Amino acid sequence: MAVRIRMKKLGRKHRPYFRICAIESRNPRDGKVLEELGSYDPMVKDTDARALLKGERINYWISVGALPSDNVRVLIKKYGTNGTHLAEQAAALERLKVSRPTAPAPWTPPPKPAEPEAPAAEAAPAEGEPAAAEAAG
């Protein structure tokens, strides 16, 4: 009997939900399962809560010869008992902060030299217009 550890699809349209199951390899995807080993909800925003795995049972099935599917292998690697997801990600970000020098300040063009202001010449009134002083007095 060839046993696979794979995902059984539940949920509805545009709202997937998966159960991780030990299942006979010849059974259909949603067929009879030998044991349910966890769940995976890709729609959960909190990364820690996406996958819930029974690590001891998964290790048992792998020890007796069950082969995980490619997607389940990734989930076990990320969220399993020896998961690399959060601890490795945090360590990588710390290494990146230490190893990468801070970026230099962005280049800004030098300020333009101030042009000397031309003396403000009072506008002479046109010949046809009376001056403001004459109109006031």
TrEMBL record:
Keywords assigned: Ribonucleoprotein, Ribosomal protein
Recorded GO CC terms: cytoplasm; small ribosomal subunit
Comp. bias regions, Pro residues: 103-113
Source superkingdom: Bacteria
GO molecular function, one term: structural constituent of ribosome
Any GO BP: translation
Keyword Ribosomal protein: yes
Biased composition (Low complexity): 117-137
Keyword field contains Ribosomal protein: yes
Disordered: annotated span: 97-137
The family this protein is said to belong to: Belongs to the bacterial ribosomal protein bS16 family.
Protein name per UniProt: Small ribosomal subunit protein bS16
Gene designation per UniProt: rpsP
